[in-house]
Amino acid sequence: MAWQTSNGLVHAVHAVRRTAQLRPLSVLSASTPLTLQQRQPARGYATEGSQQKSGAAPEIDFSTFKNTPSRIVPVSPAYFSGSPKFIDHILNLEHILAKYASLPTVAPGTAPRMAWFKLLQFREVVGEPVPTKKYKSLLAILQRLNRIEPKLMPDEVQNAMNVFLRPGNPYAFKPVPATLDERGVARGKGKRKAASAVVHLVEGEGEVRVNGQTLVEAFPRIHDRESATWALRSTQRLDKYNVWASVQGGGHTGQAEAVTLAVARALMVHEPALKPALRKAGVITVDARRVERKKPGHVKARKMPTWVKR
Amino acid sequence: MVSSFCWGCLTRLPSAPRALLPPTLTAQRVAAFHTSTALLAAKKGASAPKYRQGTSMTMKKKKRPAERTRPPAVGERKALRKRIVLSNPNALEIPDMKEVSNETMVDSRLRGSVLGLPVPMLDQLRAVQAFQPKQGWSIFRRPGTVVRRETLEIARLIDGISGEGEEKGKVVKKIVSGARATGKTVHLLQAMSMAFTKEWVVITVPDSQELVTATTAYAPLSDENPNVYVQPEATAALLSRTVTANPVLSKLKVSREHTGLKAPVPAGTTLEDLAKMGIKDPAVSWNAFQALWAELGAKSAAPGFEKGFQPRPPMLVTVDGIAHWMKESKYNNVDVQPIHAHDLLFVRHFLSLLKPGTGQSSLPNGGMLLYATSASNSPTIPTLDVALKQVAARQAGVRPSAPEFPHPDLYAKTDQRVLDAFDSYGLPAPKEGTLELQTLAGLTREEARGYLEYFAHSGLLRENLTDEWIGEKWSLAGGGVIGELERIGRRLRVNTA
Questions:
Q1: How remote is the C-alpha of A165 from its chain's centroid?
Q2: Counting Cβ atoms within 10 Å, is residue A156 exposed (0-12), middle (13-18) or buried (19+)?
Q3: Is the pTM of this model over 0.90?
Q4: What pLDDT shows up at residue B14?
Q5: Contacts of A205 (CB under 8 A, 6+ apart)
Q6: In what ranges is there compositional bias, type Basic and acidic residues (chain B) (predicted)?
Q7: Cβ(B221)–Cβ(B229) under 8 Å?
Q8: pLDDT of residue A2
Q9: Average pLDDT in the A141-146 region?
Q10: A window 278-307, beta carbon within 8 A of B
Q11: What is the CA radius of gyration of chain A?
């Protein structure tokens, strides 16, 4: 019955703990030459008569001497700073930068594009709450290291930088630039609202066909016709190319502006140098807006039902 | 649980007089002993408070007082809708603008320029309703049309038919088709202006829809032919148009006897007077029209009528919007079944000109048939589309037995009468041309330049007309569709500078 009282339970736990403590000691003793007398009794009750060791202490074996410091020293000197791993990274990079500061660099725009960790990803990797500003300073160092002339880039720097790259460098694999096919046709795709267009652009006299129809039949509104051909018109190329477009989905405006985007992309295949002009004309930037979904409890996406008194 | 109450015993009871039986109202069942109040309450009805109904604030609309103004007179609105303005005094006058004449109409150097319509001819053109509202005549100083390739082609044909050469007395039959706003109706107008220049007789049906919408009177032709119908009012209007527009009729005398009119037509009567008999009395207008048609096709005079016989001029017959004639009309027959448009004699007459039959000629003195389709106001008739494709195939020399010859869809309803209307059989008369399909498309760039320059000269367009600018507008107009070019040309440009 003593087991059931709290006091009895405590006693039992103590007893178990003691035997558990002692058992590894007995295992260890197999390697060390200990006599039977030196063995501790299985039960170490204070009331039991302890056997007094007789004779001199054994000789100190320096080969197995354990140099345990009296005070445990942390590995990183930045252990008490709160973000030791981050500071270690910074110090390491600064050290490397100082070491290779004399190497020639390339212009900022021409260095290979690297996909560094985003802030949130980096926080997860180091497991520390890194502030935005400090991470930016780390990125600045990385970018400076990245500007080292690629031919002279030391392996040490490369390896140090690789630590900070996102897995599967997204900028490493660039799509092959589109080219004209064997008949001189460039292909471009564009989307706007719910419409998506595919345009085949070929050198010609300014004929435009949309889904096999003429421009007039496809877009009754002049404004839509103008916006569909805007990429060619703004670069004075309307009478130099023929357009064959197929559009799906959406309404007139969406279809016209999807054609605009597709024509601009196809035109850039023919004449890549037109890109700045086309960007100025506003046909490079994609308008990714779509219809906002309707929400429950709302009449439309945002509209609430009319307030009714009771 | 089955009720122990015996319904059979109740039904076997002698029926009490109705007034004695209590009315079985729900309210009364609730309170059987107090009938009077319950009944009164039920009668009063909706006095109970409505707890469950929402009481949103409703704005009561004030009833507007009924408008006291008098509605416009009958026909006034239509007159306003159909009003045609041919001149704009604010537009600049173009000093060196040429007119349609015998010389200019066949001059290929004038291709792309705008030829004005001669002022004396405008009344004739108005009489045959050649102008349509919303064609943009009202933005220029005076009406004019562009000389395009098809215009020159038709001018050469008209010139040849009225000349003394090999082409004299030929009959040209064309169906003018094309996309919206490609200038089909104006093409007819150009042909009319040339025909008037050459002093032809011009007979037009400007609105084919009016004949099948059951808006004019109709009657069976006779007791012998109850299944074909005449439209006296519409025929009288046709005669009226023809008489007003063709002063040449007053010079021509009748060449034979005519029955069916109220009084015998004496020799020496002019064709104008003959037609006016039909205008005055619509009951005989169909007979008068037939008489007039026979006279215009006469090649020689009957005995007794030789005095003052003059050879008849060639004729131009135009119909606009033939698709309305290719389906059942809105008229009903005695059995309240719709009448097919081909059973209307008026329609049948003009369609029969397309295929006169073996050895016959639709216009014995030569001339031209121009029947136009419409792209903006036309019913969808798949059979007509196939029929026109067949016309084009025959024109291209495809035999009807060839595999590439177009046929109607086997699984669709086909109107055989429509197919037959365009399918000429037998050998026609030697001067009779075959039926052709002319598809109008956009202008060429040069013609578009001439047209837009006309806008610029008229002061409507303030642009530097470079080749790039014109090419751009040409593309925006769907490849030079003339109606779209006009829309672009007349758009007001507001200079913010």
A1: 8
A2: exposed
A3: no
A4: 57
A5: A239, A240, A242
A6: 66-76
A7: yes
A8: 46
A9: 96
A10: 306
A11: 38
Count of CB atoms within 10 A of residue B217's CB?
Answer: 12
Please, is B136 exposed, middle or buried when counting C-beta atoms within 10 Å of its C-beta (0-12, 13-18, 19+)? Answer: middle
Q: Mutation test of the interface with chain A: which of B444, B445, B476, B485, choosing the one with the most A Cβ atoms within 10 A? A: B476
Written as six digits, the tokens of B38 are: 């319950």
Q: Where are the domains of chain A?
A: 79-162, 186-281
Closest CA to B321 of B236, B201, B212, B420: B212
Cβ-based contacts under 8 A for chains A and B: 58
CA torsion through residues B322, B328, B332, B334, sign:
positive
Q: Compare all CA atoms of chain B with the CA of A218 and give the residue at the minimum distance.
A: B478
In this prediction, what percent of chain A has a pLDDT beyond 90?
A: 67
- Sequence-distant (≥ 6) Cβ neighbours of residue B491 within 8 angstroms: A222
- Out of B55, B471, B481, whose CB is closest to A238? B471
Residues of A in contact with B467 (CB under 8 A): 239
B418-475 tens-digit pLDDT = 999 998 766 777 788 899 999 999 999 999 999 999 999 999 998 899 999 999 999 9
A296: tokens are 């429950």
Q: Which residues of B30-69 are buried (b: 16+ CB within 10 A; e: fewer)?
A: eeeeeeeebeeeeeeeeeeeeeeeeeeeeeeeeeeeeeee
**DSSP assignments along B34-45, one per residue:** -HHHHHHHHHH-
Contact B477 A208 (CB under 8 A): no
Contacts for A111 with CB less than 8 Å, ≥ 6 apart: A143, A146, A147, A150
Q: Are the beta carbons of B106 and B152 closer than 8 angstroms?
A: yes
Phi, psi of B328 (to 5 degrees): -75, 140
Q: Are B404 and B398 in contact (CB under 8 A)?
A: yes
- Identify the CA nearest to B39 among candidates B55, B28, B23: B28
Q: Which residues pair with B220 in a beta bridge?
A: B229
| pLDDT score of A22 | 47
Instruction: Name which of B452, B441, B446 is nearest B478 in CA terms.
Output: B441
pLDDT for A83-102, tens place per residue? 999 999 999 999 999 999 99
Chain-chain contact of A216 with B179 (C-beta, under 8 angstroms): yes
Convert A178-192 to b/e letters by CB count within 10 Å (16 or more is b). eeeeeeebbbbebbb
Query: What does chain A come to in residues?
Result: 310
Contact B477/A310, CB-based, under 8 Å?
no
**Is domain A186-281 given the CATH code 3.30.230.10 in the classification?**
yes
- Name beta bridge partners: B432: B171
Amino acid at B487: R
